[in-house]
Amino acid sequence: MTGVPQLSKAREDRVALARKAFFSRGVLPDDEVSPLILRSWARCRDSGLDPGSTRAVEVAGRGQLEESRNQSGRLLGLASGVMEHVFDQIRASGSMVILADLDGMIIHSLGDPAFVDRAQRVALQPGARWDEASLGTNGIGTALLERAPVEVFGSEHYLDRNVFLTCCASPIYDAHGNMAGVFDISGDYRNPQRHTMGLVRLSVQLLEKRLFEDEFAKHIVFAFHSRPEYVGSLQEGLIALGPDGAILGANRAAREWLVRQVGEAGTASFGDLFKLGFGTILDRAQGSAGELVRLGMKNGGEIWVQVRGMRPLAMAGAAMPESEESRPRAVAAAGARGTEPRAGDPLTLDQLATGDERMRRAIERARRIGGKDIPLLIQGESGSGKELFARAFHNASRRADGPFVALNCAAIPENLIESELFGYVGGAFTGARREGAIGKVQQAHGGTLFLDEIGDMPLAMQTRLLRVLQERSVTPVGGMRAIPVDIQLVCATHRVLRDAVANADFREDLYYRINGLTVTLPPLRERSDVSTLVDRLLQAEARESGRDEIRISAEVRQFFLRYAWPGNIRQLHSVIRVSAALLDDDEDEIGSLHLPEELFGPDPLCERNGQIAMAMSPPAAAPAVSPEATEPAVARSLDELELEAIAAVMREVKGNVSAAARRLGVSRNTLYRKLGRMS
Q1: Under DSSP, is residue 530 helix (H, G, I), strand (E, B) or coil?
Q2: Higher pLDDT, residue 258 or 171
């Protein structure tokens, strides 16, 4: 073993010389130090970080450390066992096994006591942040910035006080291609271990596998490799699939494989990848009872697949669809941004409670039936948030881990709604896919089926739906066998179903079957929490557009509070999104001139200023004058407001007519005409 210290000393001597050249003469040596380390040194130098800094490292207190651990709770829980196993392999080697979060904060570590004492002198301990901006080139912080495995040896560390360390670190990615944290093994550079980086990579592969399996324990998973002996190893690709064949997540090996198949965009559907349809593949996998299945690829070649996690229902009826609606999320190239951005935390009923009393009562009533399989009927105008309420109800129920499957009964042609709802077997009708398709009812097994605008469902379909609800089973179109289903039913409509029943447009027996509990969502114009809703939508729009903040003027807020909102929350959201898009880069406040023209009359500039002005004015008793006497005064007032607005904008843009027209939301010709009235 004497050769290893000798080699490490020789390496350290070369790195030390390169470090001296870089710091003293600004020379970037290109042969003794890796490009990754040189990039890191340059970043640290350009940020003004002093390599000789002796400033004490701030270590988080117990409360702050506990908060960071809670935020990474899932990762920490799965990583603890892996870290203990790794530490058993390297015990007595003078090393530490470290887990850090996305901020570079160490949230857990295991180490030999003698080395731990030395490490604590430089705050290599839980609670300390080892981000590159604070502590220079180091394994944890540089791995986070480079998004790749990093080895930082001795004098490759930027700060003088850290040069006794050798660190091997790798980022940990979740099943959506997003970084979740960093795994690191650190020790004394004078006692290097030959296979430390290999052990780090292997540990990260194992941890990423556990993250994947934990998230998709209840989903169908394709485990695959081009060589059959690698299926079941840490080198296998893993893809999680929804009941309709959509790709929900993929491990790193699978993401890299998808990029090779379909290019850098990484977006693929089963129709793009495999010669066989999804349902056919599942049928073959079921027949093989967990054995490997050899599948041919559309672009040539083949892979070996083991299908895991299939529920009996998924195999019992028609095959899964491969429609455009079920195209999977994008899977990005390795080291890129990852899959399509995930939504944040699941929507909850509590998040819908923003101060309106009628909404509070609706939420409270729905909450009480959340675990009792009582059908829920949501009534309300279009755009009032019925689907959001249904999703929040699902997330609050004991079926939250199951699928939420939605179908808008008014948006599907009458001749297609039967196959969409109940599915069909192959060859059931002209134009049917050979492998058939699973309907929405069957897809919702174990979860929630949301039927929006059920009042527009054709009477024939109402009869079939009633039978499904009574028998708790569904028979696909053209099929002979009923398939058991277990669903929570939530329906919504803007119609008054009692009137539809009275007019024989809706079956009375189905009405009583779906109407276990009815909640009515108030229209936006009647809600007392409009201001709170506006603020939440502004915050969401700011996050989505990458702005620090988006505000609205006091005049616009008053206008929003008094406007009738025929399109309800959907219209409010659209107005805020359009208005935010019209802001210039240096603006963060939505004013009356940014509002869409659709809110106003045929002469948008005139009407918007008049309506905004009226919104700001307190209601007052109208004077007892004739209409003829009133009209000229109103016209003059609106003209004055219009001209004042034009003059203000022209001053702001320093006379630039094109810029002023964009601000005012009118054409240049219209603005030239109005400017002529000012001269």
Answers
A1: helix
A2: 171
